[in-house]
């Protein structure tokens, strides 16, 4: 097991390094001049040259990369081309909002999907199981931003129970988080419900469950006691993919609810061609996805004894 973890850690570090290279290079080959965007089309050639010298955009690409990645390793993401402010404090502030939304949405998705998916599998072939399966299929077809707008129309505009958007840290933070969390979590719950259902149905046909039933356990008791842990292995993969999807989906939902998270920050940075801010945000999102995949692999090792023996 320690050797497997060392291999996973090595893969993790290599993936982060390659990802940082790709993010840096891909953003550099995009058309457009950051100096012209920052100073405007009326800027003189001398002003543009002075700006490029200040931010080092005329240096060789390898030198720019080393300067940027060295700063990232020290916690310094550089200075925004547009606001002239340090990127790191804004990045940390916005990341706290997005991570809270994603974490709560994933909790909501798991709380809904695990019992509903298991129930649908246990009631397979019956009306109640079919209803749950049909409702989850409808949920999969609905985009999160549409769910968000529907929630705003009902709970913020019609009933006036919750704010329609914005963000405020403090005792009222959950009031501002409820609708965006439901918009993100409900769609992910529908997707996860179907995967849980499929995993449980597959486990129900395994020989070890038939053996457990032959020893006197009911079908449901055998499934709960021996089957759910085995069904959780393929579901873990889906949870990891969904967490990555939530990070991307938060970009749209944050705009719908006017939430100052990483998604809004990324959209604004792209619109302003704030190159340094864009590559820092994208690197942070890539790092989050790689960390999620690493943790899923570690969880595999903890849950599946076959990997530990290997």
TrEMBL record:
Enumerate the subcellular locations listed in this protein's record, separating them with semicolons: Cell membrane
Instruction: Tell me what topology the record assigns in the membrane.
Output: Multi-pass membrane protein
Q: PROSITE patterns annotated for this entry? A: ABC_TM1
What Pfam families is this protein classified in? BPD_transp_1, BPD_transp_1_N
The UniProt entry, under InterPro entries, shows: BPD_transp_1_N, MetI-like, MetI-like_sf
| Transmembrane residue ranges | 12-30, 99-119, 140-161, 233-257, 277-300
For the ABC transmembrane type-1 domain, which residue ranges apply?
A: 95-296
Keyword line: Cell membrane, Membrane, Transmembrane, Transmembrane helix, Transport
List the Gene3D superfamilies: MetI-like
User: Is Transport one of the keywords?
Assistant: yes
Say which domain of life the source belongs to.
Bacteria
By sequence similarity, the record places it as follows: Belongs to the binding-protein-dependent transport system permease family.
What name does the UniProt record give this protein? ABC transporter permease
Q: Which source organism does the UniProt entry give?
A: Microbacterium phycohabitans
